[in-house]
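Q: I have 287 residues here and want to know how they pack in 3D. Can you give me a structure?
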Amino acid sequence: MNRSDGLIQRRNILRENNSEGVPNSPQSDDNRPDRDEEVDDGDSKETRLTLMEEVLLLGLKDKEGYTSFWNDCISSGLRGCILIELGLRGRVELERAGMRRKGLLTRKLILKSDTPTGDVLLDEALRHLKETDPPETVQSWIEYLSGETWNPLKLRYQLKNVRERLAKNLVEKGVLTTEKQNFLLFDMTTHPLTDNVTKSKLVKKIQDAVLSKWVNDAQRMDKRMLALIFLAHASDVLENAFAPLNDDDYELAMKRVRELLDLDFEQESVKPNTTEVLWAVFAAFTK
């Protein structure tokens, strides 16, 4: 199957987003000096978001405060974000390819540093990686962290309530608020948007990356933006960034996303100054 098969199709409504449940994690510390990929996109430090938070924010319905009940992709997509964050922050790397040039999906994910990141979700995943011997592949870790494994011994690696914990991070950052809503037979905690500026900046940043700031070379793209586009697509929430575009810009944006999805990830991963974990996660979602 072609990687770009199933690429989001334009919806007629601007706000159609995605879902799961979620519970507790302190505000992620994205301002630590040990952060590898520090980017300044004009946001204040209080509203600088992790990849996981950005993907969740794209998926949340602004007024309702939850993700679509029909989205079964965002759970694994968020786990992919976690692995890429750890890679960009210098905590994990792929084992050496060796003389026979092992492929991205067969190489093991190796702990490079166990220094805490200050983010509870990232540090929980880091502890699981540290405890695992022998190491596992990127694809295996996405399954373990999502709880999607048939191996009962690996179920302890599942990161639980990820959406709720990320939503609470965003509440602490002033982007979302917390409400209780009644859904017939049960009450549900929701997190409606309160900071329209932060989400608008996020959407515009993604739009600009594939339109006005398009560089037509994945290696020249900001690594975090490249990861955001791929993981938003894998999580089935990228449509929410492109839906407000006019028809011509929408078609151009989708064409360029398809170009990224059709890249040879193995080839891209051996180019200078690349992050192999990034390409391994992409490969895991598009195999």
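Q: Anything worth noting?
A: The chain has a mean pLDDT of 85. The CA atoms of residues 12 and 243 lie 8 Å apart.
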